[in-house]
Design a protein that fits this description.
homodimer; alpha/beta; Rossmann fold; 2 domains; three-stranded parallel sheet; 10 helices
């Protein structure tokens, strides 16, 4: 099944203009390049103007931030994605904090994560992989409400926000991670398993084995 | 055991001035009055100047917000607590959003909750009941790391933030709530149970029964 998700802000926000998405990529990681290519293609399909900003591996944090500021100020750019991970000499938090909240289409700004977490609040944008996981379940006809969902991993990008989305959708959520003792026993009790952990937790297979017979969504790396 | 917690910002923030805490209370709910009295006493004990703002039940949202703005601007006030719940004609979110983040000592601002949730980020303030729960466990010599913790309830004020704090402290966290099927069976598997649900979930007793033999923290209402 092909699941293609384009997350836009409210239509009226664009006022019939062409929406614009800027993708900032630092260095030449192959996986990042692939992600960015897919995003460029999806933009073309959906009628979104895309802006590619390619910066060298050795770019300074200050230069990267001033690039973000330029995009914040550019009225043609409605969304900004800074491709992660960034090189080690750059503080990820300092850069992401500079993205204007209205352009934080990745939904990684703590204000968006806070609103995602809180009952009665809605973020401007939901992180795309977690949103995709719930969309996959929904399109597969799997209701989440009241189900026991186990999330493997608690990263800011997938594990944490998908746990929060599942909780908001009324699932009973358990989060297992690298410090969990006997994660397999918890996975075995689940109705739905979302595996979004690094290789280290998944490579030995027992968690996957424990997932047999469950509704399983795996976040894959390229 | 008496656990008395006074949460202050970094000492240097106060620059040897007397720290000030403003408590805004709308209407005359008895439980709110008791909480506010306890806060006033704790302030006196800790050398904090307290400001009580008592507003009538029928105060408008606009008037309440302009009161918050005044406190935001008052250099003698370093922390603002708006006692919840507010009367039904007032939108809680609209009021809480107006509190300056540096004065959000309740830690309920979505930016603080987002930072509480995210790995590698720290909120300016942690909500006090969740912080108190972890402090109680710590002072009782109970280590959280790797333990199975079950939180009953997912309110913005206790259940959600205490789940996030436990997760950050490396517990394996499960959250059960009003839509959970057979919450007792999940509670039975826990090492630590934090019960922070309304009466409806707790009054029949089976969750409490299932908690026997666990490290149990109950958030009590007055």
């Amino acid at each position: 099944m092909k699941v293609s998700l384009i997350i836009l802000g409210p239509r009226e926000y664009f006022n019939k203009k062409v929406p614009g998405l800027a993708v900032v990529i630092v260095g030449s990681r192959k996986d990042s390049q692939s992600y960015v290519n897919m995003k460029r293609k999806a933009c073309a399909e959906a009628g979104i103007k895309s802006f590619d900003i390619n910066l060298p591996e050795q770019v300074s944090e200050t230069e990267l931030i001033s690039q973000v500021h330029e995009l914040n100020a550019n009225p043609e750019v409605h969304g900004i994605l800074v491709q992660l991970p960034l090189p080690k000499h750059i503080n990820e938090e300092s850069v992401l904090n500079e993205i204007r909240i209205e352009k934080d289409v990745d939904g990684f700004h703590p204000l968006n994560i806070g609103k995602l977490a809180m009952k009665g609040r809605e973020p401007l944008f939901q992180p795309c992989t977690p949103k995709g996981c719930l969309e996959l379940l929904s399109r597969s006809g799997i209701s989440v409400k009241g189900k026991r969902a186990v999330v493997v991993g608690r990263s800011n990008i997938v594990g944490l926000p998908v746990s929060l989305l599942l909780l908001k959708a009324d699932a009973t959520v358990s989060i297992v991670h690298s410090h969990t003792i006997d994660p397999e026993s918890i996975v075995r009790e689940a109705d739905i398993v979302i595996a979004a952990a690094g290789q280290a937790m998944m490579e030995n297979g027992p968690i996957l084995l424990a997932s047999f017979g469950k509704d399983l969504v795996i976040e894959t790396k390229i």
